[in-house]
Design brief:
single chain, Rossmann fold, 40% helix, 5-stranded mixed β-sheet, 5 strands
Length: 178
């Protein structure tokens, strides 16, 4: 009887936790609205800048915009190294319009899965400079809704990492780094 109690109290919750650990780190899929031509995928020698704006009604601090832009830029720089640098060097601006940015509520997530969800949705345009020619567009949505300790300990910054992975993977044509 003691072994069964031990199993139910300790092992089952640990196994459940390990099975759910991928949710916050799973990279969302892009919804393509304008396919990026292979020659416009960001390559190792290309320069990129990231600009983050919020749609009317979406509230976030300027520091949050800067942080998200920096995270996306870092992820792009990591993935673009896998692309050869043949051809001329190009410059791109990645424009992200956040259509939803909701940090949720950690306490509500800790109480029950599905409460206090984290959401980040955005529309992304790839602009080739200096002509300001749009060479691609897509949208990405990421939601986190797990509960318990895992839900309470997951923050918007964690979800921003996976969102940034998805953006970087799409603009470089590479698989996201997990």
């Amino acid at each position: 009887m003691k072994l069964r109690t031990f199993f139910l109290i300790l092992v089952v919750p640990c196994v459940c936790f390990m099975m759910t650990i991928g949710c916050a780190s799973s990279t969302p899929k892009a919804n393509i609205t304008q396919m990026i031509a292979p020659e416009s995928k960001i390559k190792s020698k290309d320069d990129t800048s990231v600009k983050v704006e919020a749609k009317t009604g979406v509230t976030l601090l300027e520091s949050e915009k800067l942080r998200l832009a920096e995270v996306i830029g870092i992820k792009i720089n990591d993935l673009k190294l896998s692309n050869n640098g043949q051809g001329e060097k190009k410059s791109y601006e990645i424009e992200l319009l956040l259509t939803r940015y909701d940090k949720g509520n950690a306490f509500a997530r800790s109480m029950l899965a599905g409460l206090g969800q984290i959401h980040i949705d955005g529309e992304i345009k790839i602009i080739e400079l200096p002509d300001k020619k749009q060479v691609g567009a897509f949208s990405i949505s990421k939601t986190f809704a797990w509960g318990g300790i895992y839900g309470a300990s997951t923050s918007m910054e964690d979800i921003e990492q996976t969102f940034a992975n998805a953006v970087a993977a799409e603009v470089t044509g590479q698989k996201p780094k997990e």
